[in-house]
Amino acid sequence: MQRRQFLNAFAASAGLLLPLGPHAWAATMAPGSSAPTSRKLIVVMLRGAVDGMNVVAPVADAEYARLRPNIALAKPGADDGALDLDGYFGLHPALAPLMPLWQQKKLAFVHASGSPDASRSHFDAQDYMESATPGVKSTQDGWMNRLLGVLPGESTPTRALSIGPVMPRILSGALPATNLANGAAGTRATPLDRPQIAKAFDALYTGNERFGKVYVDGRQAHEEVMAAANSGMMSEMQAADNGAPLPNGFPDDAARLATLMRNKPNIQLAFIALGGWDTHANQGAGSGQLANRLQPLGTGLATLAQRLGPLFDDTVIVVMSEFGRTARENGNRGTDHGHGNAMWVLGGKVQGGRVAGEWKGLADGQLNEGRDLPVTTDFRRVLAHIAERHLRLPDSALVRAFPGLPGGAPLNLLA
Which residue ranges run through the membrane (predicted)? Predict the structure, then answer.
């Protein structure tokens, strides 16, 4: 095996993204202040295109029941009915664990949001959401990696963390990030945790001029994660989806992530992807296939907020999906690939308890191509708003993180 191949294999086994290009380590400090911020950002990606119209359902709109005679949520108060949000929109009943956050005004939704690109391809649309350059396939890095380059303070390997089977597109780029497997395997000991093996590898690579930094950073990231995992509450917890797992295990992963972030303050950005949202058939209404996916998602998000404890006040959690689904149900009692969707924003300082964005209704003349929600709020505006108000980034940094950022009316999701 070539030495370069070995280092890549080592990085993968350690769960570390370590780019080996000629400029991989050229930029480790952000411009301006060198003091890192304590504010956190967690992104949850629902791969497969979740049906935002049955997550945040316009139950008071007569067109909603007409377009979805078999899968529309019943109105609040009925069996398996929606949970009333504001008299017009209702939350899917499987997401009941999130209602306390809504009532505390720590949860908001941005409806009819998404990518301006018209693609209905899962692969392309996910790529655009992760690169934040809709319609441009040549972008080399993800927007969360670009955030690492503009945040104040040194970008260490554990500053950005992903939980999943592979390092995601959203964290790819010049700066290092750490990837953990889902479940307890993500914090399980490896052969390099054996002292004799670690000593041998240290002697071989630590002083190597070309590969030493890759090895040392990989070891550092693994040791930091293991140390955080084995303290505190962690001892109690052990195609369209693009490799993302179903959300069934999300509550455990959410609890694990919260503990890691509490025990390792350096972790500032985190990402996790969940699959299973491509509901072309037998989607269900208040119960059924979609409900079975939403229940562990809602429980996991509530667990994440609760386990973060006081840290939740300095954290924003964003839930997004590559596109929405058709306004009309199809002949298989499901929904097909659509356009506009609903983004979720949770956090201690979120100005929640409301459905934001420009909602045009479901009349035929208001639908995109006569079939689905239009995108009235570009997803990049939501992300840039969070980066500006929550992460305190200046305009110059926002332009670097989100090139081609469109304008629009203020969102005011955060103070």
Answer: none
Cα atoms found within 13 Å of the Cα of residue 372, Cβ hemisphere only: 25
Window from 101-115, 216-230, 332-346, 389-403 with minimum mean pLDDT: 216-230
Q: What is the DSSP-derived secondary structure letter of residue 180? A: E
Indicate the helix (H) or strand (E) that contains 24: none
Q: What is the rounded distance in angstroms from the CA atom of residue 95 to the CA atom of residue 202?
A: 48
Q: 14: buried, middle or exposed (CB in 10 Å: 19+, 13-18, 0-12)?
A: buried
Query: What average pLDDT does this structure show over 189-195?
Result: 56
pLDDT in tens, 101-121: 999 999 999 999 999 999 999
Residue with token string 């963390």: 161
Question: Is the entire prediction scored with pTM above 0.85?
Answer: no
Tally of CA atoms within 13 A in the half-sphere of 409 that contains its CB? 6
Average pLDDT of the segment spanning 261-273 = 96
Helices (H), 265-342: 289-308
The alpha helices in 132-249, defined as continuous H runs, are 143-150, 195-205, 212-229
- Length, in residues, of the chain: 415
**3 state SS of 355:** strand
Mean pLDDT of the chain: 86
Single-letter amino acid, residue 371: R
Query: What is the SS3 assignment for 146?
Result: helix
